[in-house]
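Notes continue from the previous slide.

Worked example: a multi-chain complex. Inputs as given:
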Amino acid sequence: MGTTEKKKLVIIGGGFGGLNLAKKIDKELWNVVIVDRNNYHSFPPLFYQVASSGLEPASISFPLRREIHSRKYHGAQYHFGRVEKIDVAARCVHTQFETIGYDTLVIAAGTTNNFFGIPDLEKRVYTLKSTTEAIRCRNELLDRLERASVCTNPEVRARMLTFVVVGGGPAGVEIAGALGELKRYILKREYPSINPDEMRVILVEGTDALLRAMGPKSSADALTGLRQLLVDVQLGKIMKSYDNRCLMFADGSKIYTDTVIWTAGITGMPFEIEGSDVAPGPGARWVVDKLNRVKGLDNVYAIGDIALMTDDKYPKGHPQVAQVALQMGANLAANLSRPDKEPRPFEYRDKGSMATIGRDRAVVDIGKVHLKGRLAWFAWLVVHLMTLLGMRNRTVVFINWMWSYFTFSAGLRLLFRPDKYPLRHHWAE
Amino acid sequence: MGTTEKKKLVIIGGGFGGLNLAKKIDKELWNVVIVDRNNYHSFPPLFYQVASSGLEPASISFPLRREIHSRKYHGAQYHFGRVEKIDVAARCVHTQFETIGYDTLVIAAGTTNNFFGIPDLEKRVYTLKSTTEAIRCRNELLDRLERASVCTNPEVRARMLTFVVVGGGPAGVEIAGALGELKRYILKREYPSINPDEMRVILVEGTDALLRAMGPKSSADALTGLRQLLVDVQLGKIMKSYDNRCLMFADGSKIYTDTVIWTAGITGMPFEIEGSDVAPGPGARWVVDKLNRVKGLDNVYAIGDIALMTDDKYPKGHPQVAQVALQMGANLAANLSRPDKEPRPFEYRDKGSMATIGRDRAVVDIGKVHLKGRLAWFAWLVVHLMTLLGMRNRTVVFINWMWSYFTFSAGLRLLFRPDKYPLRHHWAE
């Protein structure tokens, strides 16, 4: 094998899908390059814990160089950069720094927030779709509490202490639960100048149920759990706009708040395409066949959240979760490693889904089995620990969780914000 | 005691001095308020480890509310805010948010960088005097390596890979050593497109020795240690300016570099004073008597780095280190807790000083005893672990250090920089 010339595989994105593909593909056949705008692999299922001061960003991030340039990747390479344009005619991708040619391209760039065209929403809300977004969210939540604690104007104070989460999916439920725990357990002890009743946590969801991707029992349990944590869950509420610190809904109601956490929509990462008219499908996902080949493009694949593969079981595509990305990465790695054999179409093996609401409160659906309470919470904990990359991270996360569990308090309410100069230096532009 | 009316003690700064004072003062006699611009206690001796990706910022930070609002502080309070003005006539301090009255005031605000009036230096260099400065430094160091790894212009690439540390005190020696380790151990493994010889680490010091506050053996050992780590140490070099990415020296030599880490000067945190003409002394430190009373002001004390107490042994004041602040805080707490007794003048008990150069390389001076090498490094490690606030932090730091020690690699080279929106939100202004 060593004598045949290797082909060059470029993977856009070092997330679950891209990294698994890079790890499992035959490096005797392929020179692998992963391009990512961040120099780390991140762990989206726990972004809400960064936002709620439960975990450090470093605990759920792993340096891509350390992973990719280790022995198990046999010479695969990491390149720092955001892919801005894909030139399918010239077979290359352009980042802000360089041009990288490919023989085969895999788009594994994942998703970002969808603001559905609501004017200026992007600038006014906080989001949870990247590590830095979660850090920003944490800082702003802490800022509101600190400023409220020294604020004497009742109107301003009420607005500072009203936290609205938009979207009742796993991210929305999880961050609302974490805020509910803050209100119920932490405020009284650490913010004596704020009466816990002053703090309002509101979760608004447009449809009539939370966690709609899970079973009805999980939806109901999540609702009960959040209400026990003093979260005001409002279902069937369609948000219209957010101007002048006022959130407006389709039913004419409004909420005055300084802090809106937006978890209500995602969309595929955008790229400019040169040399083809093929465009992404619904949700800005690239339409692929059962082999993850992007329809209409040669030698271009898409995997994970950004891929839209439909079949009878998933007429609208697979759920945009880590398991799908991991399995698509593995299947594509197997197919590309056996060029002489018939490629195997992708079949998703659903291992179940879970969401956590708070300490000892979680919901798990595995096939027809439904778990809740402490057992579900423990299952959630184990699964997330095992999926984290790196023993150091697992150890540190485990310690943090045990600490929080027994002290009823996350130890990381730290407002790290630059005093004067931005974190991006003027010379680095 | 419970029947006498308590007096209000306001402490500016929750560092080593202020926190120790708040902990040890008699809370039956005093209502204690700590005001700090950050909501966490930080650990300046390890800022360089944040900058060099050795430790997470959260590992060397402790939420002030969690400490101060715990039982051992008996009702002491934390207020978020930066003190901008002290009104000694009206006996109050003004933050950007509120006015806080006091009966007795303690200035324990520490120091910040001194740029000696060199034009625009502040905007162009990276510094290590706060947690956020250290985070910024880490991000920029990682940015340079990533950008250099995809840069083909030799001139630009050389400038990106030239790292200059200005100042040969402990902070300068420690960060230069960490950069030397990066060059020597990490680059080859994780940045295959950079030849380690391309990376230059230069430490410039204006006087003729490193670590001048320590003994001559420590100075010499630090020099040897840094050179073993491939650091180019240049002594007797006075920096003049830094313009257009060119560092100019008094001897006419120059270095082209994108990255200058400035550790060459500190100065007391500035305040506006109303109601008195008393101003700080040399180094912007408040001149105090042996009881830490600020000369010329009533009911105002200063402790720690920002206090200037001179005597025969310390004609220019005490060294600006944690031990002095801790001991001044404890002594002032004892004096203020026994108002009926003769106050005890402050006497500094020098427990020794230490600096680390790298793995298994450190220098320690305790009285006339000098240690170096692995033993000194181990002593340094134990002392710093014990001084950290919080068992969680100690545990996590210990794990990180052991991990790095055995893998020859810090696991935290993570470039967390906002994509689009700044970490400070527009509505938070």
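Summary box: Chain B touches chain A through 72 residues (CB under 8 Å). The CA atoms of residues 127 and 262 of chain B lie 5 Å apart.
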